Structures are given as structure tokens and as C-alpha cells.
Amino acid sequence: MTFKRPTGAGLTALAVGLLAATAAHAEPTINKGDNAWMLTSTVLVLLMTIPGLALFYGGLVRSKNMLSVLMQIFYTVCICCVIYALYGYSLAFTGGSDFIGGFSKAFLMGVTTDSKAATFSVDANINELIYFCFQMTFAAITPALIVGAIAERMKFAAVALFVPLWVTLIYFPLAHMVWYWAGPDAITDAVKALAAAADGAAKTAAQAKLDEVNADAGWIFKKGALDFAGGTVVHINAGIAGLVGALLIGKRTGYGKELMAPHSLTMTMIGASLLWVGWFGFNAGSNLEANGGAALAMTNSFLATAAAALAWLFAEWIIKGHPSLLGALSGAVAGLVAVTPAAGFAGPMGALVLGLVVGLVCLFFCTVVKNALGYDDSLDVFGVHCIGGIIGALGTGILVNPALGGTGVMDYVTGKIADYDLVGQMTSQAWGVGTTLLLSGVGSAILYKVVDVIVGLRATVEVEREGLDITEHTERAYNM
Asked: Residue 101 in contact with residue 93, Cβ under 8 Å?
């Protein structure tokens, strides 16, 4: 059985069962309260994608492209759900190599109403089908985020081909590298087996087995990188892919010369609010248990988000002379992004500071840096998700420190919190950030080129002028 566990350095053992000499150990039990919480969290993550993200993005584009954005995101959710069931879950969360899983659970083989997935506590499991559905919603929203960077000019045929290629070749390997491990029950069993070894030969064999299963984990996981709910896997991953797409596809026709104001900030407000609500499933749900850890993640998701929204709003007010709703909403999303990897590791005050920092930095990237470099990231996917994800991922390495109110990193071998090492943890975080940027940046560029050769990436100038709604889909978002 395989599980997601966002933990870091200090864990030395990943095991698959007791050795033959070990006394029988009771099967882990299913906790119905945790099951209920994870069912709720899964639906919340779907809510933040459709309609949350779709309305947030849709309101930001011109009215002639509203429907195209809704269509691209809805399609992305549907195709990713199907692919995840066919082979995605297996590639992400089974053993195979450091970089990708195998096909032992392809077509959901062995995933039944009785199979279990571990939480963070020994002998407290949830149904594996619930875990599968929860992770499926993550796989669906990640490529949907990319849509915002290439909105208003990428052909639907290109999106339809790019998304399944990207989720298969970029998302699944990264999810495996960051989140694949064996779970606390397996670790505890392995430790007991080693302790129960009676003589030197038995201990040597037990240690060798321990070392063998310890090697069966994701590469970034073994580097010790912390990512509670997807700072690297989701946000940096989608953000850098969005920037690469925006650069390769080119600027929208008339960009910098014509007004391209959002057509409905009311829709964007509704979408942003749904994102915030759904994000509690995203972050607090990633705790996998309905306990204090989920409460901490929820608290942090409130505070970081509010702080980032205020930081962006007041900074914009000071600089431009007026506060804007769009600025407040953008800041809120930046706060949600940054707290995602830190939600279960930072203390509440640490999360609040993280929000203040990310609100200011993302504002800088979405205005000064974007204008200076002149790229057309339509809805600031890079400036908010990639930059916010990087700040959150690196900030997690600092804020996990118990001296700063963080939780520390649990060592399941010793059964206690491991000693905090700033340099070591920041090095681990840098491995996670760097690997994500390299894999997604280079990999996405290759995939965009492949799609361009097969179906072409960009709509014609005439189509773009008329709008993708009527030309691509023969429909309009509004008929008045």
C-alpha cells in the first residue's frame, strides 16, 4: 500500500511489513471521523476548481473569451479524472523508482472498498478509495491553473492535447518524487521487527531489509523536502509551465496597445471566494486526519490569506493612490499559495508573517517584473503561483522550526520530533524547488513544441480578434 506523507529529513525507515520473525501485528483500523473529513475535503477541492477557479479566471478575461476559459478548465478536470483512474494514481503512488511509480494499481487494480491508506498516525487509516479521489482532485486542478497564463489565444485543440501529456509526463512523476512513502504503520512495524531481532545475523538481515525499503521512496522525499499540500507539486509546477507557455505562444494580439480589462470582477470575486473556501479542503484535508493538525492547517489558511490580501491591498494603495478589489483578491490567492506547503508545519504567527511577505513580493512580480520583462502571462499565473509557491516552499523550511512556533519534523523511527537544522532543511527545500522548476520548465517547453507540431498552439489573429467563444465553440457566455 502506498501513501502521501509530506514530511522531511530525519526519517530513516520505509518498510512494507514485519519480518517473518516478528509477532503478528493487528491490522490498522479505519477511522470513520477521518473518512468523513476526507470525503468533505475532496468535494471542497473540486469546488475550488469548478466553479471556483473557472469563475476566477473567467471574470478576468474579456467577455468574448469567458466561455473558452470555462470550457478549458472543465475539460481539464474531466480528462484528468479519467487518466488518474487509468494509470495516474498508480504512477504517482506505487513503488517503482525514485522518479516514477509502476502500474501495479493501473485501472485501480486492488483498490477496493476494503483497502486502506495510511494517515499520519499509527493504526488510523482511511479508505483508499477516498484517498484516491482526494489525490485525483489535486491532479485535476494543477494543469487547470496553467490555463490562466495562456488564456485568450491558445486553441482548444492544443489544450486538449497538452493537458493529458503534461499531467502524465510532468505532474505524476513530480507527485511521486515529493509525496511517495510507505506510511507510519509500515515504519513502526519495521522498527519493531528490527528491535525484535534476536541475534547478530537476524539484526543484520533486518537492517538490510530496512535499508532496502528505505530506498523505495520518491527522490525529493528522500532529500527531506517538506511540502504539506502542494507548493512544489501544484503551484510552482503549474506556475513555471504557465510562464513557458506564455513565452512560447507569444503575447495576445493588441497586448500593451489595447485595453484588456477584466470583463467581470464580480465573477472574479465569487471565484476567489470559492477558492478560499475550497482551499480548506486542499490544505486542512492534506492532514488526512480530523485532528489538531487539520485545525492548524485551517488556522494558517485563514491567517496567511487575510494577511497577504491586506499586504497587497495597502501596498497598492500607497503606490498607486487607490486600493483595488482585484489587488485584494490577487493577494488572497497569493497567500493561499504560499501557505499551501507550510500549512501543517508553521505556527499561526509564522503563517501570518508568510502572508504579509508573499503579498508584497507577488505584487512586485506581477507589476514591476512583468512590465520590465514584457511577457504576457494573461492572469499572472507565474507571478502568483510560481513565485508564491517558491516563497512558501522556502519559507516552510524556516517556519517549521519549533523555536518559531512550528511543528518540527516527526521522526517515526524514534517516535519524537527530530532536531531542527536550518541549513539542512533549507537545502532540502531548495532541492524541491529547483527540481520542480527544472522538470516542469524544460519538460513543459518540450511538450508545447510537440503540441505545436501536431495541432498548432495558437489561434489565428482573426479568431483571436473575434473571440474564442464563438469561433472555437460556436457559443457565447452571454447572449443579450
From this structure: yes
Whether 53 and 271 have beta carbons less than 8 Å apart is answered as: yes
Residue 435 in grid coordinates: 527540481
**Longest CA span, the chain:** 83
Q: Residue 59 in contact with residue 268, Cβ under 8 Å? A: yes
pLDDT tens-digit profile of 219-263? 999 999 999 999 999 999 999 999 999 999 999 999 999 999 999
Cell reading at 403:
523555536
- Whether the pLDDT of residue 26 is over 80: the answer is no
Nearest to 75 by CA among 159, 16, 198: 159
Please give the Cα distance from 224 to 83 (Å, whole number): 29
In sequence order, what are the beta bridge partners of 12?
none
Q: Which residues contact 280 (CB under 8 A, 6 or more apart)?
A: 41, 44, 298, 301
17 pLDDT higher than 80: no
| Exposure string for 39-65, b = 16+ CB within 10 A, e = fewer | bebbebbbbbbbbbbbbbbbbbbbbbb
* Mean pLDDT calculated for residue range 287-307: 97
Beta strands at 3-4 and 116-118: parallel, antiparallel or unpaired: unpaired
Which residue matches cell numbers 539542512?
A: 424
Closest CA to 175 of 301, 84, 77, 86: 84
Q: Where do the DSSP E strands lie in 341-434?
A: 410-411, 416-417
Is omega for the bond preceding 173 within 30 degrees of 0, making it cis? Answer: no
Q: Where are the alpha helices (DSSP H) in 61-127?
A: 66-83, 89-93
pLDDT at 384 over 70: yes
Long-range contacts of 74-78 (CB under 8 A, 24+ apart): 74/50, 75/156, 75/159, 75/160, 75/163, 76/140, 76/143, 76/144, 76/147, 76/159, 76/163, 77/46, 77/49, 77/50, 77/140, 77/141, 77/144
CB 245 within 8 A of CB 204: no
Tens digit of each residue's pLDDT (9 = 90 or more) over 449-473: 999 999 999 999 999 999 999 999 9
Q: What distances in angstroms separate CA 76 from CA 1, 50, 162, 269, 369, one per listed residue?
A: 28, 10, 10, 22, 30
- Domains of the chain by start residue, with CATH: 29-181+217-473 (1.10.3430.10)
Q: What is the DSSP letter of 25?
A: -
Give the three cell numbers for residue 444: 513543459
User: What does the block give as the cell for 322?
Assistant: 487607490
CA dihedral 376, 377, 378, 379 (to 10 degrees): -150
Alpha-carbon separation of residue 118 from 23, 25, 137, 187, 341 (angstroms) = 21, 15, 18, 11, 20
Q: Which three cell numbers stand for residue 143?
A: 494543469
Name the CA dihedral angle for 282, 286, 289, 290, rounded to a multiple of 10 degrees: -30
